[in-house]
Amino acid sequence: MVAGQAAKRFAELPAAARDHIKLLSFNANDPQEKAILQGAYYPTAIKKAYYPWLTADVPTVAVQSILITQKYKSAGTKKKITRFTESLCKNFAVLQKKGHNKWHDINLELSKLSGGWKYSEDVKKGFMSKACRQATSAVKTQKTEGEASSSCSTKERVLGLCK
């Protein structure tokens, strides 16, 4: 099973679950495993804090959350994609505050895509809109202010070890 952290199904397992579940760990020192980091994957950890039955964090890899659409031709559909993207931006702070923990790991940015993937013009238009730029700027400001008062390193924040 592949799931975003913290997966409720696993978080609620009893301590005896450790005898029946094998989590696949990532070995960054192994050249074959490390090669996966050239793509869309980045190193992270399955955290004991989310899964009390674990005895320690387990190194793993994750993928970025990316908004992907088909290359639509319908003007109505294209407009809806742009509006959805703008709405995502406008509501992003609420999603981070009240939504699933996974929202803390998501950035509102057009990051580099690997494997020949390209952002659709409709998604780019939504992210470049004034509303989205303002929302993104507000989220970055909140994070910067939070970082100033936090003793967490950037790495710890990225790994979800603190907020």
Characterise this structure:
The chain has helices at residues 8-11, 31-34, 75-98, 121-128, 130-148, 154-158; strands at residues 41-46, 58-63. The protein is globular, with a radius of gyration of 18 Å. The model has no long low-confidence stretch (mean pLDDT 78). It is 39% helix and 7% strand. The protein folds into two domains: 1-63, no CATH class; 66-158, no CATH class. With 163 residues, the protein is mostly helical. The protein has six helices and two strands. It starts with 7 loop residues before the first helix and ends in a 5-residue tail after the last helix. The protein has a two-stranded antiparallel sheet with strand order 1-2.
pLDDT < 50 runs, ≥5 residues: none
Strand coverage percent = 5-15%
The count of strands amounts to 2
Number of helices: 6
What is the terminal separation in angstroms?
27 Å
The percent range for helix content is: 25-40%
What's the overall geometry? Answer: globular
Class computed from helices, strands and strand pairing: mainly alpha
Q: SSE string, helix = H, strand = E?
A: HHEEHHHH
Oligomer: single chain
Largest sheet: 2 strands, antiparallel
Mean pLDDT: 78
How many individual domains? 2
> What strand line-up does the widest sheet have?
1-2
Radius of gyration: 18 Å
